[in-house]
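QUALITY CONTROL LOG
STEP: pairwise intake check
CHECKER ROLE: data steward
CRITERIA: each record must contain a sequence immediately followed by its structure tokens, with no blank fields

ENTRY 1 OF 2
RESULT FIELD BELOW
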Amino acid sequence: MIGQEPHRAIGVADLSNGRIVQRIPFDKGTIEQMASSPDGKTLYCAAAGNIWAVSVSGEIHQVVAGGFVTVEPGGQSLVVELRGSPYTKLIRVPLNGGAQQDIPLPGPLRLGYVIDNLGIRNGLLVAPASGPTWYWPPAIFDLGTGKSKRIPIELVIDFHHMAWTPDGKVIGGAQYWRSNMWKFTQQSH
């Protein structure tokens, strides 16, 4: 995102020189996340509780209600995260106009914080999980069976973002909490 409110826009940069080559106005709310179609011609933006399709020519239309989005490999459908009670759930939204489908996730883990672009590879979603701990550990969710498993790590930390690398490895962004304990005593006057 580039520019100041209320005139923020999506900036498209040339990676070879870092220059902004295109500005795409977006007035549908604050963008919380973006994903791209494989051909780079459409951006999918999560803003104001909806997923918006934004073409590079600047046309914008609402796709579906949702909080976060990733494009499935092949670019034929989106996987959208819907926050709700009692659990966050996933839906698959075909881009050819077909009916959306629930993606069951029976467990043992539930989705944690957010799904990210490039989070799906070979039908497997990498994402932070919730339960049975306080933290959001890294996990793999099989979108075909709904089964999940933790990715074993040595630290107890919150993962906030995860994706697959082109060579099939998992990369993640975590937040490591550190704190201090203070003891206060009342002084008499």
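ENTRY 2 OF 2
RESULT FIELD BELOW
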Amino acid sequence: MIIKDQPSYFPDNVVVRVSSRDDGTMLDRARETIHAPDIESLRKKFCENQGLEYKNFVYQIITYGDQDSYDVIGEVTRPDNEGVHADALFTRTPGIGLFLPIADCVATVLYDPTQKILALLHLGRHSSIARLMTKMIEHLQNQGSNPNDLVIWMAPSVDQENYRLDYFDHKDEDEWRDFAVAKDDGIYLDLRGFNKNLAIQSGVKPENIYTSPINTATNSNYFSHSQGDVSGRFAVLAMIR
């Protein structure tokens, strides 16, 4: 874990941390199991280094398939190291942590200090298209949140200049026009900018949205799928104390 890369925007009762390559991989995509003992030992050690116990966390499972909608939101009230399939998790329960392995996609923490609700989102291309950010804020509003109160932090992720797609069917849509740039070799997406814009449109104050300046594609301290780290993942964890 790199101290200077940790967010400092949340109140003292909220712990948010991001691991680095030196902590080891928090998920090995090359393995048949996502819970190999040696990988779990790295997760446990990372949590212990923050004064936390991995057994008190919910492991967030992200899947890609024809059956996935990429906008599944789940509330958790008890730990689950085996994992919960969801694109976003939230909790009101102190002592229950959220744990998300990531590489390039935008792990995003939302916290409502008034309602004391904590959420962790996986914002990749698919969930961005599905407008998961908008749906999460709407869901929190249904839980009593006011978007004006929300504090948002976006973890280290890939910059637009390094996130190239061969094609992107939505590039000419109004909401993507400023965040999908067509070049000779493909389409370049600004996932952070797109999702920040969705949050602002949903009523979140711009000054309450913080984005890590770290580009995972060029910073060797973090795993980057776009740069060949097909199996390795760093992690973001979040917990209300």
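INTAKE CHECK: passed for both entries
DESCRIPTIVE NOTE, ENTRY 2: The chain has a mean pLDDT of 96.
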